[in-house]
Request: fold
Amino acid sequence: MADDATLNSLVTAAAAELMAATAANSAAISQRVLTLLVEALGQDFGFLRHNDHKIGATVLIAEFPPRNADPDPIGVVYFGDADSVFAAAEHLKEPAVMRPDRDHADYQRTIVQGTGVPSVSIATVPLLSGEVTTGVLAFGKYGDREWFAEELEALQTIATLFAQLQARIVADQQLRWLAEHDDMTGLLNRRTLIAQLDQRLAPGMPGPVSVVFFDVDRLEAINDVFGQDAGNRFILTFATVLREAADFPAAIARFGGDEFAVLPHAPMDAQSIFTLALGIHRQLQTQVRSRSYLFARTVSVGVATGVPGEDNASVLLSRLDLATQSAKKAGGARVVAFSPQMAMKKAIRNEVELRLEEPDASNDLVLHYLPEVDMRTGAVVGTEALMRWRHPSLGLLMPDAFIDVAESTILAEKLGRLVVRAACAQVAQWRDQGLADNPTLRINVSAMELVDEGVVERVAATLDEFGIQPSTLCLEITERVVIADIETTQKTLNAFKDIGVQIAIDDFGTGYSAFEYLTSLPIDALKIDRGFIRDLKRDPKRLAVVRSILGLADAFGLDAVAEGVETVDDAKALLELGCRRAQGFLFSRPLSGMQMGALFAQRFVGVEFLRD
Ligand code: C2E
Ligand code: CA
Ligand code: CA
Reply:
């Protein structure tokens, strides 16, 4: 047997190694300690195994000498079909020396077979964590070997150090799991997904790297009506359904709140990820509806792709955000793929936003004017101010390229103020030049402007400053504006009415409860949406809509203006229906301030073609 001094120095050496070990180097260190022990104790082999009580098996962790078996028949051995040595590992509490029958032993078949050695003796000591046997440390010698109590005691001390290391690794793994996952759903968390994206997008990695992003539509409604718990239950259901729907190798993360992301492990191009997203989306919609029918929600889905070495996580995430927001803006419940135009639009909006901070921002604002005519006579009866933005490199931008800056309240208000001022200044100029006398000026206003405090006083002051009669100004609002905040809107509109300013409903017919506004808001005019003024002679449905809008206007004593008249036929059809006022490319394109002034001076556009 090994003497006391040898045993003591063995324990000390093993302790020095094992106590310094971490999860990362534990395999190598365990291997080293095993080697040391096998050699010092004059053994033929040694192994360290951990118990996995969840699956009821003993799992090989380290061995010496290495057999390098692949697959390894004794890598994982289930207690149920293990021989005596491995079966004992399940609940071993004390060191044990065994001399198993070679005919039955699994390990003998692999270890001893062919060696011609008649038998083997094995000393096994348990790794213990409280009452639980978490593994075994074992040493074997072919032939017989006597084991002394001091030796087994030293091995038990070393086994305890192994058990402590094992516990440290488990704790470490748990901490890491917690740090990488979302507690509520068990999915990966935002930080982990971003880290994975950065790894996947590193130069030289396979690409393209594609992600599907999910944003639940209007979850607040559940929280507001049914409470936070119901909202959480929904999130859990959603996470479960998402995990099932994304049934391919992928990182699935809860990105925060009601946002989720799926990052397939495989590289994917834009087309494949879009197809994949459509499939997941389809499943989500039916599953979510059937499992949480009480608070079924739709979901907005964005997909985007990044190229390793070119894009990083934050670029890819901002693409996903743009795509998802665009799905949301289009009404939700759909999949939208990122397009470079989205980034372009966003960049333009940001630029306009920054530019608006500067004192001379109004220099970039350009107003064009769309004439409004009386189709019976061709008389130019008014004009609508349409905003454009002069961009240093892109030229003149149309409102749809930048106007949804209205998402940012302050910006919409600022833009609105600039428009009102510039349009009033223009009207004053036409008047002072003797080109037009009190023409009707129509200005589009956004929802944000109408809830802006002091908006009525400010407009009144501007009208006063330029000497314009309030009754010649007509503000155009869309039904969406009204829906945003009906109470404040109503108050503001009434205040405008009080100072004599007129109100028109723009894009009439495209909203929902138009009729309600007609009775509750101080409206002067309806502008019939361009979508209805097409093919009137050939499309009886559109014709019927226009007829009923005109009837409505008549019943409420409102002016009706047809928008977007492009053809002679449509103009004629409108006249037959009794609609006299119109705008559209048939009569004129939007004009510069100077051109509009000239047209006012001319007083008429040609409408001979409308008389048969
Ligand atoms: P809107 O108020 O319905 O304005 C009419 C839009 O239809 C204008 O587009 C005009 O150029 C276009 N249009 C007029 N006649 C025809 C036609 O015959 N055919 C076709 N295809 N189009 C026609 P624009 O200037 O691009 O403006 C788009 C929208 O942007 C406007 O729709 C309005 O909602 C918004 N907008 C424009 N200026 C302002 C503004 O100063 N403030 C706010 N809040 N919104 C504005
Ligand atoms: Ca308008
Ligand atoms: Ca319109």
